[in-house]
Each structure stands twice: as C-alpha cells, then as structure tokens.
Amino acid sequence: MVEQYGKVSRRSVLRGTALAGALTASALSVRAVPAAAATGRRVAVFGGGVAGMTAAHELAERGFEVTVYEPRALGGKARSIAVPGSARGGRPDLPGEHGFRFFPGFYHHIPDTMRRIPFAGNANGVWDNLVAASEARFSRSGGPDTIVPMGLGKSWSNPDDFRQSLSSVIATSAKLPMSDAAYFAERLLVFMTSSDARRTGQWENMAWRDFIGAQRHSPEFRVLMSRTLTTLLVAAKDDHASTRTIGSMGEQFLGNPLQIGNDGPLDRLLNGPTSQVWIEPWTRRLGELGVRFVTARLRRLEVRDRRISGARVADPAGRESAVEADHFVMAVPADVARQFWTPDILAVQPELAAMDRLVVDWMSGIQFYLRRPSRIARGHVAYVDSPWSLTSIAQNQFWSRTPLSGYGDGTVQDCLSVDVSNWNTPGILYGKPARECTHEEVAREVWAQIQAHLGGKTALPDADLHSWFLDSGVTWDAARQHNTNADPLLINTVGSWSARPQPHGALENLFLAGDYVRTTIDLATMEGACESARRAVNALLDTVGSNTPRCKLFPLYRAPELEPFRRMDAVRYAAGQPNAFDTPT
C-alpha cells in the first residue's frame, strides 16, 4: 500500500500545544475586555468545538467576558487536521479531517454565524466560502449507478399532487418499481401531515425501518429508502433510528423541492480546507471580541447552593488550576459531559442522569490523496452496497481558493475524502469490522469497497493513489487488536428524545451546549451544535435578566399546504386515532 500519514508524533503534539499558547496570547492582546464584563459577566466555556465557539461568539458580542477551555484543538470535529510529515519544499502539510463538511441549504444557524465572521474580499464573510455541489451519485457494486441533480424539483400544491410528484421522482432516480416509490411517498406524506404531538409521542418511539415497512418491500427498497437514509447519512441503523429524526430529514430533502426558505442550494461545501476558510477566521474574530482561549481539560465541577461554584482544569502537563466564573457553559460531547454529573449535580438536576441512555457510535473519515483529479461525481457519492456504509466527496474541484497542489510535496491533485459510517460490519478483504482493522487494513478495505462500486464505470486506478490519512481520533491498540475513537457521534435512537436535556435546568449558572441538547434540527450535526449554543446563551440571558437581543433561532421548513392536515391530525392524535393518511396496507 502507498505511504500513510496517520501517526502523530510527540513533537507534533507539542507543536500544537505551542500554537495554542500563541493563539491564547494573541487573543488576549487583541482587545481589552469591556469594563461592564467585570462583575457578574464572566463565562467559562468548556469545549472549543462548534458549540463552544458559537456560545463564545454570541456571548462576546453581548459584552460578556468569555474564556474557552479546549484540551485539543479549536473547531473540534469540524477542524482540519494537518497531516504530519507530509510537507515538502516550503509547502504546508496536506489537510486532513475528521470527515468531510456538508452544509445543506436548510441549515440556517451555521450560515447566520458565518456571515458574522469577516473574511478578506468577501462581502458576506465566511458564508461566501460556501459553494454548491450540482449532483449526487448513488453507486452500486452490482449494477448501474444513479446521478441525481441537486437543483430544484417539481412543485406540488396538495397531497395527491405530492404523492404523484415524489413517487415519480423516486421511481426514476432510484430505479424502484412504481409501487415501492408510491408507497414511500405515502409514508413520507403521513409524517409530513403529522402534528407535533404525534411526532414526539408516536414517531419518536418507532424505528424508521418499521415506519416505512421496509421488510415487506423489495430488497432495493430496503437498501435505498431504509438503509441509505439512515446509515449512510447519519451513521445510524434503520432498525434503531427514530422515525421522528429521519422523517424530519426526509421532509427537508424531499418535501421541499423548490427549496423554499432555504439559506442556499441544497448541497454546499467549503471552497478550501475547513480551518483555513472557516475555523481560523472565526478564531480571529473571537479574539477581536475579547475571547480568551486556554489549552486545558475540564477535571471537575464544584457545586454549592444549587450553583456551580467553580471548576478545576488541567493543562497538557497535568497541572491543575481553578476556574472562577459567574456562569459555566458545558459545550463538550454527550459522552464527555455525562462523566461530570456527580451525585451533587444530579441531586439538583436529576434529569441529567437520563443522558446515560444516549447512544454514541463511530463516523470517522479517511482521505485518499490522488495524483490526478478524480472524475467520480460533481458532488457527494454514496456507495450503496458497501458494508462499511461509505460516502465520499472529491474535494479539489470545489477548492478554488486553495488547490491541493499547494500542499504536501506538490504532486497531489485531488483528495477523495471518505466517511466510514459503519465500523461494526465485516469488510470484503479481511472479513473484519473496521474497529478490528489496523489503519493500513482500514485504508486497503475502504479503497477496495470503493473500487468494487466504480469498477467498469469510473476509473480510479491504484497508480493514482499518492497517500492516505485516517482521522487522528481513531487510534490502534495493538495489544487489544482494535481501534479506539476519541470522537464518537451521537445517534438518535428510538425514544432518545426524552433522555436529551434542555440547555438550562435547576443549576442556576450551568448551561448545556452540544448536539445532544434538544434542538429543532434534532440531529448530531454542526447545525445542531450551533443551534444548541444559541439556546444556551438565550437561557443565560434570561437568567441574568439581560436586555440585549436574544440569539436568533430558525425553524425547519414545513409545507404550508399541509398545515390544515397537521391541525386536523392534532385532534385525531388526541382522540387516539391514526393519521388520516396512515391507512393499512
């Protein structure tokens, strides 16, 4: 196999720590903290991912004194990861990542924040670095592929029109029998005409596979309409994923063909490496607003009189220090946050104990650097039959600002960035799940699964492969013969909504931000992280009685043509009756 860039040396870690220290000093020198922030307005934010940076941004704009404590790297899972040892000839290291970035047009919170991050030459700040993908490809290992344009679809005006329009689109694009396509359209109509009470009370407690009756339909239907919409898109299993969650995504992708109210085109990406065109400008903006950054890991929270009285953090050398603040924002992932819920905290806010029921799984990326541009698709590709549920994007075609030839040794012309969504199913080369494969085996296996789909249709020769890089959060344990993952992803399983907390509870000065917090988008995404942080900040503003404007919150689209049916369904659900379109088959 070709050269891999997967191991991070101690020197690289120390260099990253030094950079973080330099960043802290730079941020401190940019702008003095406003005098108004000195009393009762100090906020400690634990976690420097999208949620933490959003909270810091919103608070700093409102005059709060904010310190962000982040143990690894600002940007969290959204950041770029420099591929260690890949730089040559004065060029920077190749850009790696946890997984490729994806900004659907129905995202509103992240784009709103992006517009407030200055970027040289851009009238709309970082938002202008978003570019549209024109198509998506659904590749099959044993049959023809499907190319789906990402433009506007056909309009509809009533339920019958919706069913006919969507079933026609699905039958044509997915090559399904019309009977299967019509059935799926009918089921999505049931969801879209369901009231909020039914969505939370009934569909939240039913698996997507059961909702669409996957087992009663063709194998193609099960693969495309059940598995693809769950495992490939949100790293979930169709027999575990909540209908409420998956149905909401179907409503946004398929139920709004004219993209009414969207922030932009349906499928968008960044025009360069994530850190360069988003995270680093964002960090600079926060520094200008007076935000401090400290490289440290939270050790514990201290409680007194129904308040967080303080916290302890440790620097990279393990030295502990006290954090004193008036308000504390927990912007760490769910699996990290619940480690800090001590008996003292749960005595005040017992609902946090339910977070133990939240499920996390793996969705991590691997990048293949190519010597020639790839011609796979002008957008995302789903490898429908891959046992590891692979999706990819060829990045250089979108990176007009920073072509890949300017990185590494200068010979890389493209990067096929691949998300691996299923780490638990045996692969086709070694017969092992990804969790039990060495990094070299993971790379070979992913490459083989992609080639099995593209063979005879699109050239991706071995000779084009320059090198590869696996997400540095995935670490091989040679003694135990399996991988560990520092960055698992929350999975919206059946009934999990009740285990997800509100951004604020009985602990007066503790606020929660992260994609596990209850949000409108209801999905583990950058958008969910951003929305949750805004809700946490609004709760903080309410608590202190601030007269500053609240953070803007955006609803998901719901077709106004169906609103009368949703109102009718609220009555039917309260009376114990099924949705009017939910007829026996």
TrEMBL record:
InterPro entries cross-referenced by the UniProt entry: Amino_oxidase (IPR002937), FAD/NAD-bd_sf (IPR036188), TAT_signal (IPR006311), Zeta_carotene_desat/Oxidored (IPR050464)
Protein name in the entry: FAD-dependent oxidoreductase
Protein keywords: Signal
Domain Amine oxidase: residue ranges: 50-541
SUPFAM superfamilies linked: FAD/NAD(P)-binding domain (SSF51905)
Keyword Signal: yes
Leader sequence residues: 1-27
The keyword Metal-binding is annotated on this UniProt entry: no
PROSITE patterns per record: TAT (PS51318)
